[in-house]
Amino acid sequence: VDVLSHGGVVAFPTDTVYGLAALPTNDENIERLYVVKGRTQTKAIAMLLASAQDLHKVAVNPSPMSLKLAEKFWPGPLTLIITRHPDIPKAISSDDTIGVRVPDHPVALALLRMSGPLAVTSANLSGQPNCLSAPEVLAQLQGRIHLLLDGGVTPGGVPSTVVDCTGAQPIILREGPITLADIQRTLA
User: Fold this and answer.
1) Per-residue H/E/C for 90-132
2) Are 12 and 111 in contact (CB under 8 A)?
3) How far, in Å, CA of 131 to CA of 17, rounded?
4) Terminal CA-to-CA distance of the chain, rounded, Å?
5) pLDDT, tens only, 57-71
6) Global pTM?
7) Which residues, in sequence order, are CB contacts of 115 under 8 Å at separation 6+?
8) E strands along the chain, which residues?
């Protein structure tokens, strides 16, 4: 948390791959993620939360739909696209929305409980394979990050389902482990 609070970038395990995090307190922290990763700023950076109760910290009036989906599927492989709170730096997204998720991994959740919401992207160089272990993160990002939390090997696998919750109906932008049928049953 000290590293993050001083503008540092931290790599840590999630329930899918290793993530690369910064505190979303200013544009400089977010821009540092783009630089470390070598990623174009046209791609948004997601946010990870410790629980569904943290939605109000990053969203403007979360919709009943997003709250219901968060309650059912978090922690887990569901990313919700919601309207970004005005306190979240503009560098995180080219529009007024953000993707948010609660990972199902004890190390990630412990960090998020201590730090609060984090801006997170995968801990790999842009265009390179995702990292599933601390040694893989070091091989790709050594010298670019301030701290690495080694939580062993992550499960990898299928990326989260991404659902746009900014309209009247949910729109799946990327299907993952949670299907449209799962979402429809939850909202019925």
Assistant:
1) HHHCCCCEEEEECCCCHHHHHHHHHHCCEEEEECCCCCCCCCC
2) yes
3) 6
4) 40
5) 999 889 999 999 999
6) 0.94
7) 1, 4, 21, 23
8) 10-13, 18-22, 46-48, 78-83, 97-101, 118-122, 147-148, 161-164, 171-174
